[in-house]
Amino acid sequence: MSDSNIHNQFELFPHGKRPEYHPNLSYLQPRTIRLQTEHIVGICLFLIITNVTCFCLGVRQGRGGGDSVSEDPKIVADIAAEPAIIVSSVPEKTEVFELPEELAAVPEPEPERVEVMQIKLPEEVVDDDKFTIQVASFKKDTSAQREASWLKDKGYETFVLRKGDYAIVTVGQFNQAAEAKNYSRRLSERYKDCLVRRF
Fold first, then answer.
1. Residue 184 to residue 181: CA distance in whole angstroms
2. Residue 47 three-state SS
3. b/e per residue, 37-53, with b = 16+ CB within 10 A?
4. Helix, strand, or coil (residue 155)
């Protein structure tokens, strides 16, 4: 390499000059903090121990273990010896006012009459040992009556029973539950969930 080449390269990198300080751009210059691995591990351990300690103190305080009330007998005796202050919520002097005769003579309103709804019971009273097949239940009586009339047209013996807010459509009267279960197979095409129940 020639000396001229070396000289040309040094022109690109001026030496002996200090970099100029620009006070307006000082916030742009990076400030680095160099931490060693041991310092980072130590800081993490310190933070973990501090967090666990604060958590334990918070749990203790929350459970009431950190109450500041002392059980010292002298302090308890001093508190008991102090006279109690009684505050009355009733004023000492109360005035009684009498109502004018116009207001006192106002008749009390009569209680409103309430209509009592009568529920129709089934026409036939059936023994408790009888069974029937529940095929459907409806909120509206008209829907239940329509379904019962359709079943009667098909030749089935039907009953509409009221149970709470629902009208229950049942088919037949049977002495045994097994007999009702066998009969319910005839209805399984239209009614998938037939239920054998007591009358």
1. 5
2. helix
3. eeeeeeeeeeeeeeeee
4. coil
Give the domain ranges of the chain: 131-198
**Residues 6 or more apart in contact with residue 120 via CB below 8 angstroms:** 162
Alpha-carbon distance of 170 to 120, in angstroms, equals: 17
Backbone angles phi, psi at 133, to 5 degrees: -110, 120
Residues 6+ apart with CB under 8 A from 131: 173, 174, 175, 176, 177, 179, 180, 196, 197, 198, 199
CATH class of 131-198: alpha beta
Structural element, H or E, at residue 9: helix 3-12
Angstrom distance (rounded) from CA 79 to CA 69: 12
Residues with Cβ within 8 Å of residue 16, at least 6 apart in sequence: none
pLDDT in tens, 106-133: 666 666 665 655 656 555 544 557 889 8
pLDDT tens digits, one per residue of 52-108: 999 999 888 877 755 555 566 666 566 666 666 666 666 666 677 676 776 666 666
Averaged pLDDT, 153-164:
87
Please name every residue paired with 133 in a beta bridge, in sequence order, or none if there are none: 171, 196
CA distance 167 to 144: 6
Question: What is the model's pTM?
Answer: 0.35
